[in-house]
Each structure stands twice: as C-alpha cells, then as structure tokens.
Amino acid sequence: MRMTKPCPDAGLARLLAASCLMLAAAACTGVVGQVTGNGPGAGSTMGGSGAAPTGPGADASAPSSGLGGGEGGLPLPLVTGRAPLRRLTRVEYNNTVRALLNDTSNPALQFEPDTLADGFTNNADTQNVGTTLAGEYLAAAEALSVSATKDLPALLGCNPVGAETACLRSFIQQFGQRAWRRPLTPEEIDRVAGVYATGRVSFDIPTSTQMVLQTFLLSPYFLYRVELGVPAAGATVLSLTSWEMASRLSYFLLGSMPDSALFAAAQQDTLRTPQQVSAQAQRLVSAPAAATQDRFAQFFTEWLHLINVDNLQKDIVAFPSFTPSLGPLLRQETETFVKRTLFGGPGDLVTLLTAPYTYASPEVVQLYGAPPAAADGRVTLNPKQRAGLLTQPAFLATFAKAATTDPVRRGKFIWEGLFCGAVPPPPANLMITAPKIPPGTTTRQAFEAHRASPACAGCHRVMDPIGLTLENFDALGRWRDTENGVPIDVSGTLTGTDVDGPFVGPVELAQKLAASQTVENCVVRQFFRFGFGRYDTADDAPTTDSLTEQFRKGKENLVDLAVSMTQVPAFLQLPVPQ
Amino acid sequence: MKVLSRRALLRGSGGIAVALPLLDAMLSPRRARAAGAMPKRFIVFFSGNGTIMQAWAPGGTDAAFTFSPILAPLQNHRNQLLIMRGLNNEVAYTTPGSNPHDMGMGTMLTGIGMKIGPSGLGRANHIIDGSAGGPSIDQVIAGNIGKASRFTSLSLGVQSTSTILEPMVTRMAYRGSFDPVVPQDDPGKVFASLFGNTMASQAEVLSVQKRRGTVLDAVMTDYTSLMSKLGTDDRAKLDRHVTSIRELEKQLLMTGTGAGCGGITPMAPTVSLTPVACLQDARPATCVGDFASIGKAQMDLMVLALACDLTRVATLQWSTAESTVVHTEIGVTKEHHLMSHDDVTNVDALTKVNTWYAQQFNYLLDQLTATKGPDGATLLDGSLVFWVNEMSRGTDHNRRDLAYVLAGGGGALRTGRYVTFKGDPHNKLYTTFLNMFGIPATYFGDPSYTGTLTGLS
Q: Are B304 and B347 in a shared domain?
C-alpha cells in the first residue's frame, strides 16, 4: 500500500517530532496493544507479523500465573540466561581508575560515547572496540601511568632503589590483583615483570613502571569483566569464583571495582553461596556509599532517557529566561530526588511516581513556582499539579521541543518505557505532516484531528491520550492552565493496559501508573537490563516475573529489588561458554 | 551537441564489435578509459535524509546534461563528474530491521541485510544492538589497497556521534559484521593521530615506539590466551578488539609521511569542539562545535592525509542518517530530519540544505584538484570519490532511484556525464568499484545481486 495522504494536514508548516508521527492504520490498527516481547521476538512482532496480540495488561498477569501465585500452573524454572562479556562503560572506567589509582581526571570522557541501547549505556551486545577506541584506551593508559608515577614510592609501596626486582615484583603482584580484580598467575607476574625488565634496558625506573601500568590498563582483564567461572565437568551452568562475584556485585551496585570488603571476601572465598552474596549486597545498599547512590540514580537517568538533559537547549524567544546552566540543575534535581527517596526515604516505586515534593536548587524551585526548600532540602509542590518523576522538568523538558510541547513523544515514552508496550513501525511510504496549531487553539485541538485520521488513529489513540494529559506542562516543565488563551483540557484515557479507563491530568496519570502491575513488571525489566547489561529475552521472563512478585510483596522497594536481583540464577551463575 | 555513447554505437551495429573511428561526438569531455587505468584512492562523502529529486536531477542526458539547482555548485568540476540516478538499494527493503533509516544506512555501503542483535528492536523500531551484515565497500577496498599505508583507512565525521540516535543510523562503515568503524569527529584528534609522531623528534618517536611495542606485545598475549577460553560470541568480540590493536600498532609504529604531502605543511586545525548553543527544534544530539567549520577542517585533513600518502581510503560522514542538524549557517531553522518528512512544505529549505552539501562536496573536489599526490598528478585524478545518501527521498523513505555523484576515477570512469539506470541494484555499482580497483569479484554484499554496471567506463 502506498500511503501518500498526509496525516492529517498536508502542507501545514508546523512539524512535530517525526518519529512520533509516523503511524498509520496499516501498521498500527489492532497491534498497538502488543507488549514489546522480551528479546529478539520483539523484532518479529513488529509490523503486525503475527505475535500474540496481548496487551500489556495480559503481560502483567504473567507473574502471578507463572510463578507461585497460586493461580494455576507450576512455577517456571528460572534460567541463567546469557552472560555476554561486558566491557567497562565510560562511567565505570572513570570510577575504576579513581578507585585504583586515585586519579580524578575522568579520562573516559575523552572516549567515544557508549552506544545507547534504549537509553542504557551498558548493553554488552553494543560494545565493540574499534581502532578509535583502542587508540583512546592507549592514550588514557599512558596519561594515567604518567600521573601515577609522579610519586613513585607511594605507588610502589617500596623503595625500588637497591631492591629493584623484589620491589617491582611485589608491586606487580599486589597492584595486578586490584587492577585485574583477581590474583595473577605466576606466569602473568613473570610476563609483566618482563615488560619492566625490557623497559629498563632503555629507560629509567619511572618510565619502566609506566609501562607496567599500561600493560595492566590495556589488558582485557582490566577493560572487560572477564568471568570464566569455576570449571565443572559436564555442567551446563557454572558458578562464579568469589573474585568474579566480587566484581559482579561491585559493578552492579557501585559502578566500580570491588571495595576493600569485597576484595577481602574474595580473598577468603566467601562469595560462593546465595546468602554470602546477599549479605554483601545488603551491606552495600544499607550504608550506601556515594557510588551506590550514583549507581541507582544512573539507572533512572538512563531508563528515562535523561542522559542529554545536561545539554538542554530551548528556544530563547519562547523562553527568554532560559540559560544552558539549567539542564544540569534539572538532572541534579531528578537524581537527588531518586537518591533521597531510595536511601533514607520510603524507597518505593509509588513514591517515585507520585511524590508531591522534590529536592531542587533555587533556580528549579523558581521554575516550579514553589515556596523555598525546607531545611532538609525538601521542596513542597502543589499536589494538584505535581506527582513524581514524570512531572519533573528533567523529563518534561527532555520530551518536548524547543518552544512547544511534544505530547506524542511524552505519550510514546510512557507507553514504551513504563508499560513496556510496543509501537509498531510506520508504513514506509506514509507522508508525515504534523498538525498545525492555529492561534486561539491548543495542542490538543490540533491532535484531535490527528487522531480522527484513520491512517494515524491506530497508534495515536493509545499514545496521544497519555501525552496530552501532560499538556499542563510547557516545554520547560512549567505549569500552565491555558495555551493561546484557551483553557487546556487534560482529560485522557488508557487503553490496552491493566489500569484502563478515563482520568484527568498529570496527577491522576501518575496514580494510574503507580497502580499498574504492568508498570511494576516493566520497571523490573528495565532494572534487569541495567543490572545485567543486556536486554531481557523470553528465557528471562520467569526471572523478571519472579522478581516482580518479590518487588510487589516488598512494597515495591527498589533497593530491595536490587538485592533480590543478586539471588536469581542469572546473577549467581554463568552459562558454559558455547 | 548530443554525445553518442560508444556502447550505443556498438549495439546499433548489431552488437558486432568493430573498430570504430573515434568521432568527436563520441568523446565525452573526458577521454575514455585508458588501458589499465585504475584509481589509487577511494573517498566516500555521506549526507543523509535523501534529497529533493526534482531539484537534484540534471537536465538532459549523458554528456549533454545541464546542472540542476542542487548540483550547480559542482559546475567547475563538470568534466570530472559522473552523476547517476536510478540505482536501487533493494537490500534496504528486504533486510531484517524495521526503521527505514536503519534499513537505508545499515545497507548503504554493505549491500547486505543487517543483523538484529539479541535485544531486538527498540525506540521507533531501531535495531538496538545489531549490526550491518558484512563489510562496507570502503573497508573491502581498504583491505586491498590500504594494507601498506600507515592508516588502512581514515574515517572522519562531522557531529556523527549522537548520544540519542541508535547505532545503525550513526555508522556507515564496517570492517565486518558487528565491527563498525566509528568516525572520528574531532579534527584535533585526527591531526594528532596523523601527524603526532611526525611533529616529535626522531629520538622521541623511537623511544615511544619502543615502549608501545613492548607493552602491546605483552597485552596481546593476554588477549590471545583469554580468547581460547571464551565462547564464540565473546571470542569474536575480543578478536575485533585485537584487530583494532593491530591496526593501531601499524599507525603508531610506521613513521614519517612517506611523501611530500603535496607541498603542504601540516598545520593543526584550530576549530573548536566546545559545546555551542545551537538553536534547535528539539535537536536530540549534543550540539558540539560549529558544523560547517568542523566539516571544512575534516576535509582539509582528509586531503592532507591523502597528499601525504598516509592513507588511500577515506570517508567523511556528515551527521548521521536521520540527521537532526539544524542548518542555521544557511538560515534554515528546523532540523533536517523533521523537515525531510514533508518535502512539500519544506521544499525550499531542503533544497537549500542539499545545495549546501553540494557546496561542501565541491570544496572537497576543489582541494583534491589543487593538491598534487605523490605521483605528481592531482589527487582528484587518481581518486574515486563517491557522494552517497541513505535514501533518495526522506518523505517516503525511498531507498530506490538513488541520487549518486561520482568524481575522478583515475581514468577508469568516463566522466563528464549524467547517466540514469533503470533500477539496477546498487550492489552492482560496488562490484564495479571492486573491479576498477583490480579486485576480482562477481558480486558484492548480497550474493543474489551479481554483475557489474555497464556504461561507466
């Protein structure tokens, strides 16, 4: 079918984000309710090619029917799943060299950016080292090694003058164990010592020591999180060594190399049972280091696609007071809100999605039009206007255009990112033209026509009614009651979900999301993707369903969810290499 | 005067090959291919989101063509051009995947279906962690003619790194499946890698090389021993890393420029990559540096690298497929991709954008013409230059009837012409390229599209 009929107002000047406006009846009708299948199956559901037409609501019922819900059916076994070799992300590299060398230069900021997989920076399947990145690794290793050898005795822990060989050998052994996050074999020690000896033929002690450091920092045992497991004949899954488990825990919960307690536990080989693993996870989140808090905040920034809010740009005509310094403050607000809620606060998803308060800088408070922060930093917001993460400016301004709002993108993100619902692709030949918003009308009025077009309605009847209920927030996230002098109608409805029905405005939307079991399951799946550095596949559904059930029973506490996640086979085991 | 194609004459005479006198009318402005003529260098120039065909397509045919508004900036190079339309990227319709920009870009230079990764499809049905299905034409050519160069190939970008867009639309070159070549967007870094070791003293260079050689040798042992313990996918991932280190070693350990650099003294670029405030209509990528001046710096560096014979294969990727650049430098206020979805309303602005890209292509051709290569001929003379786009029209994401411009060709192309094809797969063009470079091949990419294009030489 060749669709050239525009959707719906050909020739009108104003365009909206095209990615959100490209849906037509052929691709959309009847399939928009599909849940993004776990994994590659998602591909086959696209284009209406025949996956089961279940809505997200149906997906939400899966946990209880699948696992111990007592609603029939035996629990499905949880599988270990894939464990692709993970490379340090930029954030992890910086954190690691800070811990290892006390180097705060953040060299990975110079690396090519991590490839984003639906917002996440750490998807192992996207990580490839081309020549550019290999060169950046080399440059970073050289720079780090020069800085680290400025105070050589402090680095080496011994005086190389006089007892050079012994001093260096002991340094290689001790530093190597931290850099590679496991003890070195004697052969490995010999080989690195060989680099030093070769260096010394031509170079001085500091230069040769730099070569040693570079050898460590360029090795796959530093750049990757190598997991070979404990060999076991005939096994299909392997358990991890305590050293490997220490790194799994630390990169999951600290975004960095193991801390001293984890290294001690690895040394004592006491990271082998689920209880031992759980105890360490519990320790890390109970007295959370700044790194742990940052790690949780990172999940939210990546899941909500806020990674670029630092570089927020807005139309200076529409927003004369806007300055680029606002972006980082918006990110800081969302991150602080997440950290304060998760650590020392209620810790639950409902609060994150509905809280009528935040923690924000004076500039952002002004944007809210709220009274100044209390002594503990809390800013009380109008509970009729604000409810949690999706009513914060970081989200609202990211999912908006320079001057105007973008209800389709807002609605589409909530559908895909919170309901894990799929939006089928547009027909290839559809000519896309966005509605124009004439003076004296609102964005909603323009979009009513949009949905009236059969070519567009298939998908937009699902996405638009969500996004339009956030129309009270302008492109910067400020509250507004009218647009172009016309009162804004923020009534909406949810279809194809487990919380279907009409509602009015952003606060009721937030309440709907907070009440949805589909959203609950979707958040667990998103957290799984972040925690395991890969997408969840159909094989992982029993695991994510089981975690969802624990999450629900545990009053949707995300910190507890993280601990639960260390107890599933996917965390405790490895598949045998194929 | 209409120019008759030599082939048409041969066909007209019943297909019997006879020695024909060279008539003036048969001569295109550039002489027919000399025996054994072969380009020495391959250059790819990419701009995205399709064009405005009615403003791009030249008038007339063959050597009698007249320049269109978009291509008018190239008039001075008329005799060096081979403008072509009518080739189809058929693979871009049959490939796994769903997003049309993915499908266009992921097959543009590879001619083979993409691979969807373990994660399937994500936002707007973009492939999340998949790859092109095989190597791109530039990398295959580089693997043949670039081995002796310090840089097997040089991959440059102009704001090609988007922190929001998905991998398939941000890359066009692949060494192989799951092995994208990421363009370098920073002219300063390009300069440092090209000339860093020629700026230092000889003693310094030798010292650095000795250290790096020792370290990389030891590191390589780690990679090879680890690889033997891993499963297939992880081993392949490390193998690609090792290939990158090998290439890096070649870049680091080979010395000198090996050529007179066309008499140009290498100078570090002054262009800045610091973030700039670019007024944007929801432009999702980080806006860093000035698009036009970064592009000029990259083209200058490319020409320099070719003149110094540091590489024989170079690519320049302007932005990405689905480019979201706001071309404020020419008074366009809306982002390119957004506009390309409605080429009725935005016909003037899109024509402007594509004309601007023609001006940039012209600048590159100017520099290649003004600079002598190691053999004393102009760089353009010995180069095959290819301007490519992931689609022909953005509004319907058309990946057929593609709008291509070739330039130079080292005597292997009969230039000064505008030719139209009737839907041949673009794979045939790449097979023709391979043969032009003396690389035997009967197909490129998808094996079902065999054969070469006739009428180019």
A: yes
Amino acid at B128: I
Report ipTM for this prediction.
Answer: 0.86
List of chain B residues whose C-beta atoms are within 8 Å of the C-beta of residue A197:
none
- Quick one: CA dihedral A527, A532, A535, A541, positive or negative? negative
d(CA A143, CA A109): 13
Tell me what pLDDT residue A63 has. 32
The pLDDT, as a whole number, for residue A514 is 97
Residue A147 CA to residue A492 CA, distance in Å, equals: 58
- Residue A9 has which token pair? 């107002």
- What's the confidence (pLDDT) of residue B258? 57
d(CA B364, CA B314): 12
B118 and B75, same structural domain? Answer: yes
Q: Are B272 and B381 found together in one domain?
A: yes
- Give the span between the Cα atoms of A316 and A314, in whole angstroms: 6
Number of separate domains in chain B: 2
Claim to verify: residue B109 and residue B8 sit in the same structural domain: no
| Domain-embedded: residue B275 | yes
SS3 B140: helix
Considering the domain boundaries, does residue B384 fall inside one? yes
Evaluate whether residue B198 is within a structural domain: no
Instruction: Tell me: do B113 and B68 sit in the same domain.
Output: yes
pLDDT at A75: 64
For chain A, the distance separating the N- and C-terminal CA atoms, rounded to the nearest angstrom, is 44
**CA distances (Å), B368 to each of B71, B76, B157, B170, B371, in order?**
18, 13, 18, 26, 5
How many other CB atoms are there within 10 angstroms of residue A560's CB atom? 18
pLDDT beneath 50, residues of chain A: 1-72
Q: What is the CATH number of the domain that holds B332?
A: 3.40.720.10
Cis peptide before A8 (omega within 30 of 0): yes
Query: Which one-letter amino acid corresponds to residue A314?
Result: K
- CB atoms A401 and B282 under 8 Å: yes
Asked if A430 and B238 come within 8 Å (Cβ–Cβ), the reply is: no
- The minimal CB distance from B118 to the residues A82, A214, A406 is found for A82
Residue B17 sits in the same domain as residue B64:
no
Cα–Cα distances (Å) from B66 to A377, B2, B79, in that order, read 69, 12, 12
- Tell me the β-bridge partners of B179: B176
Position A33 scores a pLDDT of 38
Is B112 inside any structural domain?
yes
User: Both B301 and B420 in a single domain?
Assistant: yes
Structural domain range at position B347: 31-186+266-436
Q: What's the rounded Cα separation, in Å, for the pair B299 and B368?
A: 10
Asked if residue A417 lies in contact with residue A304, where contact means CB atoms within 8 angstroms, the answer is yes
A578 contact residues in B (CB cutoff 8 A): 231-233
* Predicted model pTM: 0.85
Are residues B113 and B8 part of one domain? no
Instruction: Please choose, from the candidates A397, A325, A313, the residue with its C-alpha nearest in 3D space to the C-alpha of residue A361.
Output: A325
Which residues, numbered 95 to 134 in chain A, qualify as contacts with chain B under a Cβ-Cβ cut-off of 8 Å? Answer: 112-113, 115-118, 123, 125-134
Confidence (pLDDT) at A36? 40
Give the integer Cα–Cα distance in Å for A379 and A376. 9
Cβ contact, residue pair B163, A534, below 8 Å: no
CB–CB of A126 and B123 under 8 A? Answer: no
Distance CA B58, CA B68 (A): 5
Local mean pLDDT, 10-residue blocks, chain B (457 residues): 35 33 36 66 97 97 97 97 98 93 96 89 81 97 94 94 77 94 91 79 86 95 96 96 94 71 84 64 56 94 94 96 87 88 94 98 97 89 96 94 96 95 97 96 96 92
Q: Cβ distance A516 to A497 under 8 Å?
A: yes
| pLDDT at res. A426 | 57
DSSP code string of A517-561? HHHHHHHHHHHHHHHHTS---GGGHHHHHHHHHHHHHTTTBHHHH
